[in-house]
Each structure stands twice: as C-alpha cells, then as structure tokens.
Amino acid sequence: MSFNSLEFLFFLGASLLVFQAAKKNILFSQIYITLISFIFYLAGDPSFFPYLLALGLMNFAFARAIVFLPAQKKILLIIIVVVDCAFLLGAKVYGQSSHYFPLGVSFFTFQILSFILDIYSARIPFPKNIWHFLSYMFFFPHLIAGPICRAGGLMKQLATPFGTPSFAQVRSGFYLISFGLLKKAVIADTIASRINEVFHTPQGTQGILAWGVVIFTYGWQIYFDFSGYSDIARGIGKLFGLDLPLNFSFPYFSHSLQNFWRRWHMTLSLWFRDFVYLPLGGSKESPLIYVTAILITFLLSSIWHGLGLNYLIWGLWHAFWLIVFHFSLNNFPIVVKRLITLFVIFSGWLFFRSESLDQIQVILGLVFTSPSQTWINSILIKSDLIFLSAGSLLVEIGAFQFKKRYQAMSLLKTDAVWLLVTLCSLIFQAPIKEFIYARF
After folding, report:
1. Could you give the CA distance from residue 252 to residue 249 in angstroms, rounded to a whole number?
2. Of residues 49 and 96, which shows the higher confidence score?
3. Sign (positive/negative) of CA torsion 265, 266, 269, 274?
4. Three-state secondary structure along 266-297?
5. Minimum mean pLDDT among 80-89, 204-213, 351-360: which range?
6. What is the DSSP letter of 244?
C-alpha cells in the first residue's frame, strides 16, 4: 500500500478510528500498533514478512540474553550482529541477482542493530514485553523507508500512555501529510516519468548542459520522493500521538558537504556517526584515522543502499570530497563552498541513478563528446525538465519561508496554506509510483 493510494487512505482512516474508539491501555496500544503494522507490511510484501519477523524475534531473544547473562554479553553481541549483517547482505545479494528487493530491509536491519547495540551499552532498558519491542520495530509509518528510529526515542514513547494526540500534534500531522503528498504525488512522481525516459534511452540526451538539467531535476525528484515519505510518516505518527525524528532539513541549502550530511537522511547519518564513524576514531585529530573512518563509513553506506558499483562510486565520491573539504575547503568563502557542495551533490546523483557501470560510461561519453550544436538541440528538448526544476526550487524556497514564519503566523493563514497544499496534492496528483527508497 503506497501512502498516496486510496487503499492506504482507507487503511489509515479505519486504523485511527478503531484505535481512538477502543478503550485502551499501554499494552493494548502496543498490540494494536503491532497488528496493524503486520497487516500493512503483508499487503506490500507478504513473502518476506516471515523473515523480518523471525529476525526481530531472534534479536529480542539475544537482547534478553545480553541483559541477563552479562558474562557472555560480548560474544552474544558479536553473534547477533554478524547474523543481522549477514541477513542484510543476503537480501542485497538476492535482490541483485533476482531484481527483487524486499520492502524496507535496510531500514529494518539498521533499526534492529541500533536496538541491540543500545541494549548492549545499557543506553536503554530491556523492553517491558514482546509487544513493546514489536510495536517499536514494525510501527508501519516508518517501516518501509524510515526515519530510522532509535530505541531511546520511540520505545520510550511506546512505554507511556499514547494514542490521544494533542491538538498541536493533529494539526502538525495533517500539515506534514499534506506537504509530503505534494512532494511525492505531485512533484516527484511527475518528474519520475521524464527521468525514467531519459535513463531508458540516454543516447537521446547529449552534452553537459542537457545532462546537467537532467541530473539537477533528478536531484529534486529523489529529494521530494524521500523527504515526502518521511514527512508523511512523521505526520501519521503524530496522529497516533507519537513523534518520529526529523529526517531532512532543507539539505540543498547547505553551506558545506559536512553540513549537507547533517541535513540529508539525518537518521541514517546519525546512525553511522554513532555506530561506525565515532567508534573508528573519526573525531580524533589524526589525519590518517579521519580518512580511514570516512572511507569505511561511506563504503558501508554504499553497501546499505545496494551492491551495484554505481552505489560504490557514489559513496566514494562523497567520501573523497568530504576529505577535501576537511583538509582544504573549509576556510574558503561561504559562496564558493556552497557552489562546490551543490556540484558534488548533484554530480553524485548521476552515479546514484545510473543502473550500471556501463550506463555511467555511456552517459559520461554523451556529456563530454557531443558536438555543441547537438547540445543546443538537446537542451531545448529538455525545456520541460527546466520548468520542473524551477518549480521544485520555488516550492522548496516557499517551504523554507513557511517554516521560518510558522510560529508568527495566525491559525487562519497556516490553515489556508495547508488547504492550498492539500488541494494541489489532490488535483495535480501524477500516476502513483513506488517510493524510491522503499526497496533499499
């Protein structure tokens, strides 16, 4: 069930109505959240659900053993982390060979790893019961494509009375859902049709200007697709009285590449910071340790996204430029840093979007070897993409200004904006397409 489908609208409405009508305590709420989340996942990928459930139950058992058998907790941690990583790698290998990628497997695995690592470090208490754990792991809004929720945040909320959202949560929830649908159903899905055409027959696009327009437009597609999912997930969470973490904060307005990674897919960046980069000594002053930590972090990040060489190149591209920023560019004027940051981000999307190394080579050949007259013809053909990119930029600027002024605006003005966004989402909705990150 896609968030922007009628089936999901019915599912969400029915789930909320039953939840609010029922006389509930904490245990009932946990069981109910778990069961409707099972239904949600089964509707999207029933064949893989037993494996996710088995992995979850295995981690729960190992977490219990880590807590109650402290003398063996280190070996228990090593065993279950190896099992979790092997599970994720196996799913990636299977997807690479069969072209079938299980729904949300990367997000689920990293969330369960954060749980077991936090249990080992005694940063969180052991769950009160199995339903407490399962409701945290399977809570359906973030199950498929995040945000990656740390146990110390969501599990703590699930252990207290929840389910009766405040007026502020309801308003904020509807705002987030509407903005998320505008991003996904109107902008990202409209762009997707054209971008898919270009990458299906790349020979029709020639020259650096035309490909620059294509990649710039794809940058908006993946951003609005992914952040749109996160907004909708956070909005649904608020309707259940639960606050999910922020995942995007206007990343294309970043003043450096480091700043970009603090604004883009924030929950994944924090996960890698806490469980990979810092344990490797990335915050230390040693240049060698810093470079090693960055390279390993982005190597693992590329594997998290997929096993294709395109993801490896994308990860190493960002790692290289982060190292360059760290040692030489951070003292440059902010305008120069912003321009270089945008160049790195959008150039990287070419590798990310390409389906293979061969396609990357073909596209780079078309970028740099086409005659200038062909460039002009090709860029004129891409005029619709220029329009879509310009519109995307204006929407992002508008959202940025709205967020800045939100607290000072009257209810009438904010509700008017919400109504306008909702109407646009309903009237201009493109044909439904799956979220890009759903199969990561």
Report:
1. 9
2. 49
3. negative
4. HHHHHHHHHHHHCCCCCCCCCHHHHHHHHHHH
5. 204-213
6. P
- End-to-end Cα, the chain, rounded Å: 17
- Report phi then psi at 86, rounded to 5: -65, -35
**How much of the chain is in helix, strand and coil states, percent to nearest 5?**
75, 0, 25
Element (H, E) at 226: helix 208-239
Contact between residue 269 and residue 405 where contact means Cβ atoms under 8 Å apart: no
Of the candidates 151, 144, 150, the one whose C-alpha atom is nearest the C-alpha of residue 228 is: 144
Question: What is the C-alpha separation between 299 and 297, in angstroms, rounded?
Answer: 5
Cα-Cα-Cα-Cα dihedral sign, residues 391, 397, 403, 406: negative
99 within 8 A of 121, measured Cβ to Cβ: no
Rounded CA-CA distance 7/9 in Å is 5
Identify the three-state secondary structure at position 254. Answer: coil
Q: Which residue has the tokens 């055409």?
A: 197
C-alpha neighbours within 13 Å on the C-beta side of residue 266? 13
Which two structure tokens, joined as six digits, stand for 294? 């960055």
Which residues contact residue 270 at a Cβ distance below 8 angstroms, ignoring those fewer than 6 apart? 150
Q: Please give the average per-residue pLDDT across 130-147, as a whole number.
A: 93
Query: What span, in angstroms and rounded, lies between the C-alpha atoms of 126 and 115?
Result: 10
The average pLDDT across 286-295 equals 93
206 sits in which H/E element: none
- Per-position DSSP letters for 62-96, written without gaps between them: HHHHHHH-GGGHHHHHHHHHHHHHHHHHHHHHHHH
